[in-house]
Each structure stands twice: as C-alpha cells, then as structure tokens.
Amino acid sequence: MNRKPPVIYWDTSAIVSVLFKDDHSERAHLWAGQEGIHLISSLGYAEACAVLSRIQREGALADILIKAAYEVLESGPWRRLHLAPAWEDLRELSAKWPLRGADLWHLATAKHAQTELPELVLLSFDDRLKTASEGEGLGIDLTQGSRP
C-alpha cells in the first residue's frame, strides 16, 4: 500500500522546541526531519517571533544565538500557511475543549485545513492542545513518531 507522507501543522510549542533545547527538542527535531509537508501559520510564526524578541530584550541569550534561532525559523522545514479558522469552528471547539485562545486558534485552523488535507496532523507539546487534537482526529502519537 502506498502511504501518503503526512501533512504536519506545527503549533508554537513545537516550533519553539526546534529553536531552543527543551524537554521536547529531540522529538521536534525528529519530526522536522521527517518526510512530509510541514506547515506553520501566521499565528505560530508571530508567537515564535514574540518569544525570540522577548528573550533578546531580556538579554537571556547572546544576540548571535537569537540571530541563529531566527535563521532556523526562516529556513526550517516549514511552509507558511495563509489560512484562518472558520468562525463556527472556534465557537464549537471552545465549548468542547478547555484551551487558551491561541491554542484554540491553532486547533480550529488545523481542523479547517484537514477538510482539504485529510492526512493533516497537528504537532504540539502542549498537553491540553495535544489532547484536543487527538479528540478531533488530528493527533500524533509522539512516542512512536507517527500518526496513531
């Protein structure tokens, strides 16, 4: 059977785990190296830029490391997704899942994109968003490195 490579929507927690070493970086780098289509939204990009700028303003990392992180953000495996969630999905999913606003936006955007790309999965290291994405059929088995 000829299996299609996955379409992977990256939320901000996954993007940041590629940019900086944390508990999820190893898995994030494995996913970044996987064959498939990797997508980030303008929200994920904006949140990652905000993190980088905050770290730079606070002087937590040398400017050269911030510059390197921006280069990874720009040259990573990601394609930029120009899509917004459907308004009705935001309301429906907010009633169903206890998510913060940005995480709700990521979930609804991925869910909307999945209507055209049924192989789409959402990569997140946020526990609540991961649970919601699994419940919506967008989940990734992070222990196996593949879709459940």
Give the CATH architecture. 3-Layer(aba) Sandwich
At the fourth level of CATH, the homologous superfamily is 5'-nuclease
Structural shape: globular
> If you compute it from the alpha carbons, what radius of gyration comes out, rounded to the nearest whole angstrom?
15 Å
First and last CA, distance:
17 Å
> Which range does the strand content fall in?
5-15%
Described by strand count, sense and barrel closure, the largest sheet is: 4 strands, parallel
Secondary-structure element order, as H and E? Answer: EHHEHHEHHEH
- How many runs of DSSP E, i.e. beta strands? 4
In the residues, how many domains can be counted?
Answer: 1
Describe the structure.
By secondary structure, the chain is of the alpha/beta class. The chain has a single domain, classed as Rossmann fold (3-Layer(aba) Sandwich). It has helices at 12-19, 25-32, 42-58, 63-75, 87-96, 101-114, 127-135; strands at residues 7-10, 37-41, 78-81, 120-123. It has a four-stranded parallel sheet. Helix 1 (12-19) crosses helix 2, helix 3 (42-58) packs antiparallel against helix 4 and helix 5 packs across helix 6 (101-114).
Keyphrases for this structure?
single chain; 148 residues; alpha/beta; Rossmann fold; 4-stranded parallel sheet; globular; disordered C terminus
